[in-house]
Amino acid sequence: MSRTVFRNARVFDGQDLLPAGTVVAVEGNRITHADAARFKEKPGDRVYDLTGKTLMPGMFQCHFHTGFGPDAGNPSPYLGLNMPPAYLGMVAAKNAQLALNVGVTSIIGSSNGDLLDVCLKEAILLGLTKGPRVTPCTRELIASGDSADGDNRAWFMGIRNHGLIRRADGPEALRQAIREEVGRGCEIVKISISDGHGSQPIPDYNYYSETEIRAAVEAAHSRKALIRAHCPSRVGIIEAARAGVDIIDHADLIDEEGIEAVLEADAAITPSYLWSERFLGFAESWNYDMGNFPIGNGFPESRARTVARLAAVRRDFEHTASMMPKLRAAGVRMLLGDDYGFAMMPHGDYASEMEVYVKHGVPPIELLRWATANGADALRERGRELGRIGKGKLADLVVVAGDPTQDVSLFRNPDHIPLVLKDGVVEKDLLTHSVVAA
Ligand SMILES: [Zn+2]
Predict the structure, then answer these.
(1) How many domains does the chain contain in total?
(2) Are the CB atoms for 232 and 197 separated by under 8 Å?
(3) Residues 396 and 298 in one domain
(4) Cα–Cα distance measured from residue 45 to residue 57, given in angstroms and rounded to the nearest whole number
(5) How far is the CA of 392 from the centre of ligand 1 (A)?
(6) pLDDT 10s digits, 271-287
(7) In the 8-state DSSP scheme, what is residue 353?
(8) pTM to 2 decimals?
């Protein structure tokens, strides 16, 4: 079998830079060599000289809304969810292509209607479209009265498709919903524990009780599915972690007790600062001569209420940002991924999230760990062979022109990601290589 050989690269293995002179070789869909020991090429080997470039594991986007984002340029709150399922399927395919093109080889779904994640995964495996590995997510399971309840004010959450959200009250209804969704092929369950984050202030109550959270976790894990939770509230984070939720989304009001609980549970967090920053930037500079601010909870809102809401959201985010040094110092597993698909943060622009964290003091090399090894580890057993460069690992690899351990803005330009390998298959190649002669 011919091999693909990468020479003279700066190699980031998912944790750190490997010694200069490291040669990485791929045979079939696995990495068969990744060290600086002598490597003998064979006839037929395809050899890439990566001088000046970086070789790293394919990246993870760990909070992926597959069907969001067909209406770029329009500040509509509907996220395209007012469109029919067939259209959303094409949006999902496009989003998957955009992700792969910037070096994302794995996505972890974070709720979608219409079985979009499951269909996208199958379509990619069948070669109907290109895209990353997909961990398909359920619809977002909510309690009655959740702010995303489609029969509540946010009518657009459920309109004209099979709904981004699925209502399930009580342990029995949650178990049934999870069994059905997992039976359809979903591999991660999403529940909404508490309200708020980014555009809405965070109330001091939760939608789901601790009993319901525990029932949901048990139902998901018993069918070998993972479970994630939209969870901005302080107490919700603690209850989610103690119940065994695998990924805690947003975690805005986390405190020291929450950090302890998350570490104890070996859970992961998607801090998702980009949406908060982009939303606040957009909202706080809104020109009210154009009318009321358009992004709320489904109903028009007076200027006074918007201003009060934004002040509360700003306070929440100041707390969130103040906790970043503590989360890092404690060694919490943090992930990249945010609510891409809004007009102000289109799919494919994943560099922006990294840039926000750099602004909040996170070094680029640490963000590369979030993007690779941490994403794989968040998948527990499913991620065991992903997210790292090492002998025997699956060959999901990305070449970056330059040094992303110093500058994450490189990811902004797809031309700076000239090669993407997924499962040993070349998905993108703007480079030249030589073939060893017989
Ligand atoms: Zn989300």
Answers:
(1) 2
(2) yes
(3) no
(4) 21
(5) 33
(6) 999 999 999 999 999 99
(7) H
(8) 0.95
